[in-house]
Amino acid sequence: MTCVDYVIRGGRVIDPKNEIDIIGDVAIHQGLIHSVGEGLKVTGKEEFNAEGCLVTPGLIDGHVHCYQYATPLGINPDERCLSRGVTTVVDAGSAGSSTFLGLRKFIAERSETRVLCFLHIAAHGLAAAGCASGAPGGESDCLNQLDVTSCHDVVEQNRDMIVGVKARLSESITNNGKNEQEVYRRAMEVGQLCKVPIMAHHTLSTIPTQGRTGDDCLCCPRDMAPGDIYTHTYHAFPSTIIDPETGNILDDVIEARKKGVLFELGHGQGSFSWTVAELCARRSFWPDIIGTDLHSGNLDGPVYDLPRVMTKLLHLGMPLYDVISAVTVNTAKAIGRDDLGSLSSGREADVTVITLEEIERDLEDSQSQTRRVRQWITPVAVWKKGKRHEITQPKEIPNIAAMKSNAKDWPALVIKDAKPPSVLQDK
After folding, report:
1. Vertex 151: Cα angle to 111 and 258 (nearest 5)
2. Closest CA to 383 of 31, 110, 25
3. Which CATH superfamily is domain 58-344 in?
4. Which CATH architecture is the domain 3-56+349-356+376-389 placed in?
5. What is the pLDDT of residues 127-150, one digit of tens each?
6. Contact (Cβ atoms closer than 8 angstroms) between residue 35 and residue 5
7. Count of C-beta atoms within a 10 Å radius of residue 300
């Protein structure tokens, strides 16, 4: 009988890339996936009993900020991602062309977590920037910082790590909106030149979500190209994808999806609304990619980590198989990394084991509106390139202190619950 390094036995193995959904085993040897199947005839130097668990490809978080110490939003990917079952993260624009090498040398090359990134169209990225809904002032106030040539060159020189271009489209960080159209245009230009997707953050923006007949301005997501990624899909601020008057998804959003624009969750500190999510869920408008937008301002709530964000989608009614797809194969395909997101034999052995528990617990959205969830995803084991890593768990869910702080933005929402969050009512 063949001897391998690890055998993960008896779990429900879900690998959407290979259309696998079985009770079976996963064998790992020399850092690679050896085999997957029912009752594998192999022995492991070490074995993990996964009975009652789900075994998936290593989770991919398609939206984080992990340029720690060089940006206000940066977090440690090993401490906050790998230890929660996430083997690959995609940093969403923390670095621009002038600051990218620091992200590579001091974060990606020193982390156990695989770190990829979208390069910010602004040369300095998010070096001095926080959330886009704060006080005026941001990375795109000066168009001199948005150099197409330097952005293009850095993408081309770092194809192994850079998977696309990031643009943040918000009035407060683009010289009071005067630069927004040009930020968008230049990001799309680099995307077209390099044949990579752009990721567009579009909240509190002067750029219309729904275009009008005869308009001569760019709209978002209408003018995005197939394969481009629209993030913060379920936010409830002005620029939301929902028509506040009807509660329907805007026509341009539906048409953008039809032509191939991808929608990424991008939960973040301000960009996930239970109210918007439920309106979208009624129409089965699910995110193609489930990313957390995990950063220093939300890692202790309302985001916590990717498994907790997956839990929210499951509560909304997104099928489990689709939830797993949106954190594995879908993300890998969107960023042009088909070598990731599967349990195919011969691929690097990135494997996550999670449990799906029956439980009743409140989970908050970005403005502290809560829902009582009854299924809970918890990571219990993770292997990255065949090496097992320790799992940690959040200390407090929900985090009431964080909820009280985040609820302050509730009045600014254009789509929201009929009653304010309980932490506001308790005052």
Report:
1. 90
2. 31
3. Metal-dependent hydrolases (3.20.20.140)
4. Roll (2.30)
5. 987 666 555 668 999 999 999 999
6. no
7. 16
